[in-house]
Amino acid sequence: MRSIISVNNLTKTYAGGFTALKDVSLEIRDGEIFGLLGPNGAGKTTLINIICGIVNPGDGSITVNGHDTIKDYRAARSLIGLVPQELTTDAFETVWHTVNFTRGLFGKASNPGHIEKLLKDLSLWDKKDERLMTLSGGMKRRVLIAKALSHEPQILFLDEPTAGVDVELRKDMWAVVHELRDAGVTIILTTHYIEEAEQMADRIGVINQGEIILVEEKTELMRKLGIKQLALELQGRMTKLPAALKTHKLELAEDGMTLIYTYDTRAERTGITALLNDLGKAGIKFRDIHTTQSSLEDIFVNLVKRAS
Length: 308
What we know:
By secondary structure, the chain is of the alpha/beta class. It is built from 10 helices and 14 strands. The protein folds into 2 domains: about 5-220, Rossmann fold, CATH 3.40.50; about 225-305, Alpha-Beta Plaits (2-Layer Sandwich), CATH 3.30.70.
């Protein structure tokens, strides 16, 4: 799959001496949903703002569908829609006017049908004649998405798009994202709701202290770094682990009613068969058994800790 965004050896140091990005190289594939994760201050927003031409780059280069973001700024920027973190809107304008005006800023001919569809998809149609200052935070967030999509971009950046948005609005937004992805739009998402990235993204990039520490297919990342746990609910309470089970990676829950066995999904042998045999020999009976897999959030936290 070809790359639609190429970031090469990008470094950004501000006037005060703070280095926000350190030799970042990244390829975003055409048509994918890319989840960019990182703690606060990791460099996510700086990277997005440089790609979108809002912040000047330092060293390095960026191309968007082959267009250099410095030498061919207009062509590169016309391909991008950006939903920023901050709720910056023209308070006294109506929803319809601000979205329609944004389309015109990109030199696009008027297309009332497209604007109407956007507003309906984002549940804004009944608000089209209301001033932005009268809208709730969630509705203003929807307006930002409509503005970002007004000129029909090939690439959409969503920088914390569901911050402060209720569950119902969030579902509507993700329905629009799925529709855009199906239409071939490339989407780059940053979010504090890691379960959203786990559900939506095709690939995951992790940035920490201005450096990209990992880029991986989401399913492969979870397979490689995921830890599984086998929980055995006992028929009777246990006060301590029998000596015969000491060789296994077992933990006894505080209530004494559950044994927890942790194993690596990548290992050639999980050791579960040997464990069950030893449990039988020790006369330990259990009434239920179930497994859990570490979530993307668990993996993310461990990666950041390891890189810090």
